């Protein structure tokens, strides 16, 4: 069936929605040295600043689904994307850690509420083309992770804001606000999702716990790297490498799609997990140990490895859960995933503060990679898995 003009517009809106879910989150890492010096934050606070929205993704996974059921897709998107745009901009209102963290909390809540609404849009708009629509939406997420770390400093948004990180954060939020208006206008106005009779997550299923921990370890490494690489490079006299390092850390995720297309065995067995775990550990060691600009290719390898782990686990709940229970397993997986990512990232910052040495911030990430590889060995992985990518 040929795509109509209406279909193409909807695909564009799904792509922009994916971008919106990550754009304001990943605008912070390139600005961390400026925020750090201006607000006198310690490394624990830096880790909390980056990972606070991640914690909300864990805490709001179930309430977000219930909100969609009560308000409908459009109501949930108006609420969620509105919070993202408004409080993403207000993070820079004044020079107070309290304002920064409060606004970040509310912005993260908006992301958490919005995220489950987009799969609902996929089902509403493309019931017979779910794979294509999901691929477009997932690509938007990856682009949303790459754009801010590439075009915040030294060229792009920060120079446009005359070096003011407060204004730079607000400018990224304008992009979210503009696309959010178009998405919410096009979203179905009155459709309500039926609340399944069994909606509470299946917490006690061992596979749910293992899948959540596996993907959570990969997410912890990814968010931890975005949180601590900027200050690490700044303190080791390589400030000029922050932008290219973060750009390749996030842009490296885009390489997963062509690689798994050429070698789909990565998605059908444990090779993807074990290989990703090994690359995650080696690349983090490379970031700390290798001199000069070698941190850049190490970050590229790290971004690719974390995305590879994600796309494999992304396919598992629909394949493993019993009929009618996919939503319950997914809710459990996402809660465990983002909760794990938040805790590991926070521990990494605490170790840096306690030791005074930057390399200690990457030790939890190396341990997480090893744990991911070990846990993946006991997962039941169907042989017919096929998926797209995202983070």
What is the fold's blueprint, element by element?
Layout: H1 5-23, H2 32-39, H3 43-59, H4 61-90, H5 97-114, H6 117-125, H7 130-150, H8 157-160, H9 165-186, H10 206-235, H11 242-251, H12 256-262, H13 271-289, H14 295-314, H15 316-320, H16 326-355, H17 363-376
Helix pairs in contact: 1-6, 1-7, 1-9, 3-5, 3-10, 3-16, 4-5, 4-6, 4-9, 6-7, 7-11, 10-11, 10-13, 10-14, 10-16, 10-17, 11-14, 13-14, 13-17, 16-17
Please describe what this structure looks like.
The protein is mainly alpha-helical. It has helices spanning 5-23, 32-39, 43-59, 61-90, 97-114, 117-125, 130-150, 157-160, 165-186, 206-235, 242-251, 256-262, 271-289, 295-314, 316-320, 326-355, 363-376. Helix 3 (43-59) runs antiparallel to helix 10 (206-235). The longest helix is centred in the N-terminal third of the chain and has 30 residues, at 61-90. The chain is globular, with a radius of gyration of 20 Å.
């Amino acid at each position: 069936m040929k795509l109509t003009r209406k279909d193409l517009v909807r695909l564009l809106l799904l792509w922009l929605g994916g971008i919106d879910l990550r754009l304001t989150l990943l605008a912070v890492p390139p600005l961390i040295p400026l925020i750090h010096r201006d607000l006198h934050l310690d490394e624990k606070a830096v880790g909390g600043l980056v990972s606070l929205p991640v914690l909300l993704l864990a805490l709001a996974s179930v309430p977000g689904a219930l909100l969609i059921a009560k308000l409908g897709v459009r109501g949930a998107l108006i609420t969620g994307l509105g919070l993202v745009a408004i409080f993403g901009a207000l993070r820079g209102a004044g020079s107070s850690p309290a304002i920064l963290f409060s606004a970040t909390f509310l912005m993260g809540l908006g992301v958490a509420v919005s995220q489950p609404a987009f799969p609902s849009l996929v089902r509403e708009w493309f019931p017979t083309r779910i794979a294509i629509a999901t691929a477009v939406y997932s690509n938007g997420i990856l682009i949303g992770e790459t754009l801010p770390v590439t075009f915040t400093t030294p060229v792009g948004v920060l120079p446009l804001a005359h070096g003011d990180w407060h204004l730079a954060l607000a400018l990224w939020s304008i992009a979210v606000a503009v696309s959010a208006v178009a998405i919410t206008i096009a979203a179905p106005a009155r459709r309500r999702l039926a609340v399944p009779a069994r909606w509470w997550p299946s917490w006690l299923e061992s596979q749910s716990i293992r899948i959540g921990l596996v993907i959570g370890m990969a997410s912890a490494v990814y968010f931890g790297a975005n949180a601590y690489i900027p200050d690490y490079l700044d303190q080791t006299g390589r400030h000029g490498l922050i932008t290219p390092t973060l750009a390749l850390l996030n842009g490296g995720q885009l390489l997963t799609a062509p690689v798994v297309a050429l070698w789909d065995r990565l998605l059908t067995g444990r090779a993807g997990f074990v290989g990703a775990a090994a690359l995650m550990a080696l690349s983090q060691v490379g970031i700390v140990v290798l001199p000069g600009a070698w941190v850049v290719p190490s970050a590229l390898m790290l971004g690719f490895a974390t995305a590879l782990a994600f796309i494999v686990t992304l396919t598992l709940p629909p394949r493993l859960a019993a009929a009618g229970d996919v939503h319950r397993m997914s809710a459990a997986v996402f809660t465990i995933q983002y909760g794990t990512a938040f805790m590991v990232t926070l521990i990494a910052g605490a170790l840096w503060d306690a030791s005074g040495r930057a390399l200690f911030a990457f030790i939890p990430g190396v341990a997480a990679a090893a744990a991911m590889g070990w846990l993946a060995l006991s997962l039941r992985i169907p042989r017919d898995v096929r998926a797209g990518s995202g983070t």
